[in-house]
Amino acid sequence: MKLVAVGANLPSRFGTPQQACQSALTRLEADGDIQILTRSGWWETAPVPVSDQPWYVNGVAQIETTLPPEALLARLHAVEAEMGRVRTVTNAARVIDLDLIAYDDRRLDGAVVLPHPRLHQRAFVLAPLCDFAPGWVHPGLGQTAEALLNALPAADRAPAAIRRAAEE
């Protein structure tokens, strides 16, 4: 399963953060070599680490592509740039964020790290992933998405940290 996490917390020329997230998925499919197979619902999540930034809208998409991981990551970064993302400081607010979370069962530790090294610590990835694939197994940890989500501290799964977003 190839998984891409999508998030935003700043309005942009694409509209609200949720509209930007949907637009990013549409842009990923534009060249025809990436297909969105399914996506989670949208989730509103507190910024990590805790800050005074606006809350994020997050989701996860399962994709199909023949692009190798390095080319896929380059495409994700290209779509971010097209949409106006400027990388400044780590954990800065952003108009769009696209992360390659997993690429089948591959484990890579080079220019591309797979699965994403903090995936198992992020409710804002695991909760959306559980919308459509609670039984997905982390290639390195051997645990399901649902088990990883349930293993997070209760505060990370509480409505003060994460909640379903209304569909626009």
Task: Tell me about this structure.
A hairpin with a 3-residue loop joins strand 6 (108-109) and strand 7 (113-114). Strands 1, 2, 3, 4, 5 and 8 form a six-stranded antiparallel beta sheet that branches. Strands 6-7 form a two-stranded antiparallel ribbon. The model has no long low-confidence stretch (mean pLDDT 93). It has helices at 17-29, 69-82, 123-132, 145-151, 154-157, and strands at residues 2-8, 34-39, 43-45, 56-65, 97-103, 108-109, 113-114, 162-164. The protein has one domain: Alpha-Beta Plaits, CATH 3.30.70. Helix 3 packs antiparallel against helix 4. The longest helix is centred in the middle third of the chain and has 14 residues, at 69-82. 29% of the residues lie in helices and 24% in strands.
Topology:
Blueprint: E1 2-8, H1 17-29, E2 34-39, E3 43-45, E4 56-65, H2 69-82, E5 97-103, E6 108-109, E7 113-114, H3 123-132, H4 145-151, H5 154-157, E8 162-164
Antiparallel strand pairs: 1-4, 1-5, 2-4, 3-4, 3-8, 6-7
Helix pairs in contact: 3-4
